Write the structure tokens for this entry.
Amino acid sequence: MLRTTLVAGALAASLLAPTAAARAEAGGDTIPVITDEYGRTLTLRGWNLTDKTNSGDAALSGITEKHIRDMRAKGFNLARLVVLWDDLEPRPGQYSQGYLRKIGRVLDWAEKYDVKVLIDAHQDVFGPAFGSRGIPAWATRTDGLPFTPNPDDWFSQYFEPAVQRAFTHLYEDEDLQRAQARMWRVLADRFKDHPAVIGYDLINEPMGELREGEDLATAARRIERDQLTPMYNRIADAVRSVDRSHWIFVEPTPIVGEGVPTGLGRIDDPKIVYAPHFYNSGMEAGTDYDPAARWLENYEEAVTLYPKEYKVPVVVGEWGPLNNSLPNMNRFYREAMASLGRYSSGWAGWAWCYGGGYCAVDAAGAFRVNKELTAEPYAEAVAGTVRSTTYDPGAGVYRLSYDSAGRRGPRVTELSLPPGDWRVTARGGALVLRKSPGRAWVLAAPGARVTVTVTRG
């Protein structure tokens, strides 16, 4: 295990008193932050882990311990684990114990390498009834409407009449509502005590049925308001019947990627995270980033409205262009990382795999071009109130300023360092404890104004 066995580790653990540290203010336009059980401010950065190819006895066999070990070695502390309802419940009411054990095995690897896991109930084009994965065929109702496959443009299949009607039935049929809630209750009950779990993403990229005369933005806001909001409240209630502690992540429709504010309403739970995805339709089709189009600025403006209104943290559940080697992609990654750092508690890129396309790394495990820019120094957990964080990728300098917690609060701030030679210094009554080549601790006096500087050697 990578958890430290140093004496310093025992000292730090003893100073993590289970009392709440000061959180970011929730008033005004401030977006709250994710915190851990000690009240420390968390930053989550990582990648999606997915195996949609294998099912049944072979389900999740495409995810190995190496995936998580390599992610952690590059400095990432979050895995968004794709879990498929059609594998979990292949027949109504019959839950696969083998599949649950395989999920548990991935969680055990994550615990070993100190990686937090977000369990994501994934769907693409609804599920197996349409040649994809996600919602079981037995929970798919189309009213006999047509479906024409289009593998060359998979997203267009969401607009096939049968797929749209299937979403309507999922949201509105009481027996399917109960089945979806039971599925989540099974997952939460099984993994509520696992130390690697950070939370539950209730459904990936939900879509719905357009009505006659609606444009896409109007339909998305209605679906989010009238169907997704009550669905999330139902599932949250089911999760809370067995698990009171973990974060619950809720997504808008993917239309938010076009800079459209969500129509989601309030989810009545104290630990909700807003989890939009960060995709541009043009770049998804393989085109280059166009800074003049101001997509990043428009997206950030739109996506921050909901968390400001409802006072919930933000974690972006997926992002990353299809072709990361085009001329403007270096600029895109730099600007995207800066933007994500302004408003989110973290993100998960798509995806940690070894190859081409969306993969973070190549077959040898080296970052694919420009994706090395996702590996920055950052504060995984801050024992106090963050005042500011900055990173200059050109100079290789990261700075964190925070007010440490009071006498009854936690003491230890944890830093993640990507591969390389990094020097860590602290001012303001703080002591740097080196934990491992990719980690460092900062031990601060109560109520101190602390500045941490990380410099590339």
